[in-house]
Amino acid sequence: MKRIEIIIPHERLDKTNKILEEFDVGGMSFYHISGRGKTKWKPIPVGRGVMMYTPKYGTRTKIEVLVPDSLVGKIIEQLLNELSTGSVSDGKIFVSDVIQAYDIGTKNKNELAI
């Protein structure tokens, strides 16, 4: 099993969810995060004057899913093809191993738990 962490602009959440549903991914968690990276943020006007503020941190949405090893490559390929615009600010995908998983209600483990 693998955990896929997908960091994207919030506007792409629905598109990402549709891709995951195509692969019958059973569950998805997402939350709003703030941070900094290589993206250069544009100054934004502050108040009614000519003052500008350049944010230090940007906001993104982080999605976490657990998937069987057999689907990881296909899901990653689809995400890259459909979410990429060629910009540094498109986001990131991280993949890590999940050694064990348990469903508390059914007591199923590993791939049966997801």
Q: Would you write up a description of this structure?
A:
The protein has helices spanning 13-22, 69-83, and strands spanning 2-8, 29-35, 44-45, 52-53, 58-67, 92-97. With 114 residues, the chain is an alpha+beta fold. The longest helix is centred in the middle third of the chain and has 15 residues, at 69-83. It is elongated, with a radius of gyration of 18 Å.
Mean of pLDDT: 90
Instruction: Characterize the largest beta sheet: strand count, sense, and whether it forms a barrel.
Output: 4 strands, antiparallel
Which secondary-structure class do the elements indicate?
alpha+beta
The domain count comes to 1
Distance between the termini: 9 Å
The CATH first-level class comes to Alpha Beta
Low-confidence stretches: none
> Roughly what fraction of the amino acids lie in strands?
25-35%
Order of helices and strands: EHEEEEHE
Q: Into which percent range does the helicity of residues fall? A: 10-25%
CATH architecture: 2-Layer Sandwich
Number of helices: 2
Strand order of the largest sheet: 2-5-1-6
CATH topology descriptor:
Alpha-Beta Plaits
Describe the global form: elongated
The tally of beta strands, per DSSP, is 6
The gyration radius over C-alpha positions equals 18 Å
